[in-house]
Structures are given as structure tokens and as C-alpha cells.
Amino acid sequence: MAQVVGTNWLLTLLLVVALAAGTIRASDPDLERSELAAQRYVGELEGEVLARNNNATELSWAYESNITEEALKRRNEAASRNANFFKEVARELRLYDFNSFKDADLKRRIKKLTDLGYAALSEDKFTLLVDAISRMQENYATAKVCQYRNESNCNFGLEPELTEKLAKGRDAEELKYYWVQWHDVAGKPVRKDFDEYVTLNREAAQLNNFTSGAEYWLDAYEDDTFEAQVDAAIEQIKPLYEQIHAYVRYKLRKYYGSEIVSEKGPIPIHLLGNMWGQTWDNVADITTPFPKKKLLDVTDEMIRQGYTSVKMFQMGDEFFQSLNMTKLPPTFWEKSILEKPKDGRELVCHASAWDFYKQDDVRIKQCTRINMEDFFTVHHELGHIQYYLQYQNLSSVYREGANPGFHEAVGDVLSLSVSSPKHLERIGLLKDFVLDEESKLNQFYQSGLGKLVFLPFAYTLDKYRWQIFRGEVKPENYNCKFWEMRSKYSGVEPPVVRTEDDFDAAAKYHVSADVEYLRYFVSYIVQFQFHRAACEKAGQYVKGDPEKTVNNCDIYRSAEAGNALKAMLALGSSKPWPDAMEVLTGQRKMSAEALIEYFQPLYDWLVKENKAIGAFVGWEPTDKCKSA
């Protein structure tokens, strides 16, 4: 490979020198061969790129499924080797005047190959950055707290112990204890590493010709107006969010009392059923509009029918096959980790789907629990897998979503069907469930607690980091700025006063692991656009028809819907995302219109109900973080 690189480098250098001397003009045949040389070089790179991506992914998998110092060392060494390799590739390709090439596809491939990311850093600084992120990620993965009122048991991790405590617990003091303990051990210790990460992130962005890491992340969306589109979407959903927030706060105030939940202030985050208050569906049982009506939860029925983690994935696989999509390959079942290993090893339990850049080598790592939430998560993760399988024959640089949010949206499109009462009845998990008007509102409400309330959280997590990357938020204000933004956009606050000695943002995996979060925001908007289009193709949605609505659709067994989805997924990132979206939806812009249409019955009811019960709409700023 080095010989090929050297030969092409010399050829290009001679061409550049000749151009500078004026001995070759743009119309000369030799310059045309420059484009052919680039085409040949990029083609020759393909096997090497796939091999390196495969090796790096294997080593990352080995580390995340068994956290040891040796596994970490091997993963980071491979990352450094690959960084150097791609840096040389980019340096070579930049010698070509590729912006003048006639082949648009070649230009797109070269642009992706010359995007170095962190590899633009010097080798020493790249190592420092990878080490800082690894320390943050390892701290997050191995953080443990003591059991409430039992300090002899200090082996409570986020999964499953703390997640289940926050989801099912109703003792405000116990919930506050676990919230504080987790944020203290998962966030506070990595403050120094985060400072180093931010400095190196900014330097890498500037070496890639971006002003900051914010602009670098946003560049993945290939639209200079995309940040404005994101801001517009959050404004679109604001009226609906304020209504559901007001109702939930009213209900929690009735449940916990006015000393714990104020009438007009932000909601104490530890009472919302989730460590970060990112979804609130776990408190549906104590806040639901019609408590006498049975809530949609098939967990008990899954347990009664003897569901296992494998069966849950088999059901998900069958759903995709019913859409005329690709069956999971045998290697998936052989190599995936579908439940938490019982051998005591430390691993990253956060559910994730993996592409190993080899034919049909796709896997999932998930500490699956037998409950309805994880049943939907299984379908979400299999959505990633289906995307991998549909674009696996494309060039290596195109083996990714049309934009980062598309990957997240695909699985959730399936979950919108899978979570419908119509589908759960079809697969025998929902029995004796009468879907009258009150039950429908309970269903919309429960879905809103999962889908709608997530949007301000997702928006904040990256809006906050963009401001840090841009230097608009200084280190001495990291924690209080975080809570100021959580309060402003989500109307939540910590259960106790926090200070700048704390670092609560890093108690979320994606902050500690350097994972851009806008993808989730985008996915929660565009999934409704995808869902509406798929439902229309399945003959289950007709605008204005009360019998065929976007919120009562199950695309199960619709080859028409599946074929339309496949056509979009098969493009990978070979085209700009509006082109991919247009294949399925006919639209080229992100819009919350379909989401609002989905939740319109809930919004109409909430407006009337909040007026009737006197629930205050809106919230005052939090006073739960002290800078000094």
C-alpha cells in the first residue's frame, strides 16, 4: 500500500508543479488524467479502509464488552495507527484539485476522506485526546454507588440497579439520594479530563478549517441553515411541551405535595422516572389522565409468555422480514451480546448496534431486560442493523446514515408501529384492552412522555456543548450554565443545590463518551415524517380521514412501506440527506409538522384540562445552582 501511495503522491506533485508553472492548462489531457489518477487511488484505498475500520471496530467491541486495561490499550493503539493512516490519505488527496473534478461522486468521496476529524491533531495530542475520552468513558461505565441506607452494598451501577430505582421508586428521599450519588460519581471526577477534551476538540476543528467543534458537528448535516432549522423545530413543539409539562407538574404536586413540587417552578428532575429527566413515561402510572383505564404495558404478559432476550430479537427480526427487508445473518446470533454476561466482567451496557465493515457482520450489545421498554429498544437497535445491511455494498465512506439523525430515526419508525395497541394485539401481547377515547388519550399521553418531552433535553445537550466548543461558556460556569439551560428549555431542576464543584452534564453517557446528540433530536422529528410517509404507502394513512390517522398506524407486513424504506436506506450517505428523505417522504426539509399532527388529540385535551384544573402553564427559572 505504501508504494501505491508514494507513486500517486509523486504523480500529483508533478501535476501541481506543472500547473503552478503554467505548463498545463485546465483543458489539457494530462490534467484529465489527474482525475483518473484520483479515481484509481480512491478505488485502491477501499480494501485497506474496510480492513482498518473492521480492526478498529473489533478492538472497540473487545473493550466495551470486557473493560480491561489491556483491551483499552489495544483499542487506543489501533486508533492512533488509523489516525496516522487517514492523515496520510487526506494529505495525499488534498494535493489533487478535486473541487474541479467533473465526477460529483468522486468529489463527494474525496471530501469524506479528507475530513480528518481528530486525526488532524499531532500524534501526541491525538493520544492525549483519546486518553481523556477513554478515562471519561471508563469512569462512566464503572461508576458505582451505595444502596440507600445500606452502605455495606456499594455495587449499584447505572444498569440495571439505578435505572430501575429511578423508574419504579416513589420515595422522594430515596430517589434524591440515588440521583445525587450518581451525579457525584459519574460527573464530578471527569471535570479535568473534560477541560482537556474541549481544548483539543477545538484545536482539531480548527485544523479541519472549522471555527469550533460546534461547526464541525453541524457540518455532518450539509446545510448552513440546519442550526436555524433545529431552533425552529424547538419553537414549533414548545406550545405542546408547555402543556404536557404543566399537567405533569400538577399531577406530581398532588402526589408528592407542595413542599417537594412547587406550583410554578421547574419540576424536580429526580421525580420524573429517569436519571436525566429525558423521558417521563416511567411516571405515567401516577400522572395518567384516566387512571382507572388500564395503561398500555405488556411487560407482565411478556414474562407470562416466557419471553427471553433472544425471543425479543427474533420478534424484531420477523417484523423487518414482514416488510420485505433483510433477515438477520447467522453471525448476528453468534456474535452479539444480548444480555448482561454473568461472569462478572465490566462492560458498557448502553444498548448499541455495530457494523464491522465485513459482509453480514453486524451485532448488537445490549443488557436486555424482559420488559416493554426494552422490547421497543430491541426494534430501535435492529433499525440500525437494517440500515447497515441495506448499505453494506456501498463504498466504505458511504456506509453511514444520510445524516447522523437518520440512523436513530429508522429504528424508531418501526417502534411507532410496534408500540401501537393495534400491533401489540396482532402479536398476542395485548389482551382485554379496550381502546375507547379515554384509553386513546392515555396512550397519546404515555407516548408524549417518551417522545415529546425528550426533544428539549436533546436540544439542550448539544446546544450546551456548542456554546462550550465556541468558547461562549467558560469552565468556571460549566455546571450552572447546564442547569440554566435545562431549566430554560425543559423546565426541570436538580433535587438539591448544585455548584461549580459539580459537573452534572458528564453524568450522561454521550457527554462523557464524546457522542454528538443532535442526531437524537433530529431523529425524533424526522421519524414522524418517515412514519407518516410509510403509513401512507401502507394504505393506513389518508390526510383528513379519521379512520386512517398517523397515530393509529401499523406498517407490519406492508412490503410497499418496507420497499420505500429500503430505497432510502440503501443510499447510505452517498447523497445529501434531503435527497434521501425525498425518496421516502417527498419532502426535503426537517419539520415538526408530522409530530404535531400525531399528538394533536393530546394537545387539544391538555389545553382544556389544564384550564379546568387550574394548572399553571410555564415555569420560573431554577435557583438550584450556585456559581460561587
Plain-language structure description:
By secondary structure, the protein is mainly α. 59% of the residues lie in helices and 3% in strands. The chain has 26 helices and 6 strands. The protein has helices spanning 2-21, 29-64, 69-93, 104-113, 123-142, 158-168, 172-186, 191-207, 213-219, 226-256, 284-287, 299-304, 309-322, 330-335, 372-391, 404-418, 421-426, 437-451, 454-469, 478-490, 509-512, 518-537, 559-569, 577-585, 593-598, 600-613, and strands spanning 267-268, 352-355, 362-365, 492-493, 498-499, 625-626. It has a two-stranded parallel sheet with strand order 1-4. A hairpin with a 6-residue loop joins strand 2 and strand 3. Helix 5 packs antiparallel against helix 8, helix 10 crosses helix 26 (600-613) and helix 19 packs antiparallel against helix 20 (478-490). The longest helix is centred in the first third of the chain and has 36 residues, at 29-64. The radius of gyration is 25 Å and the shape is globular.
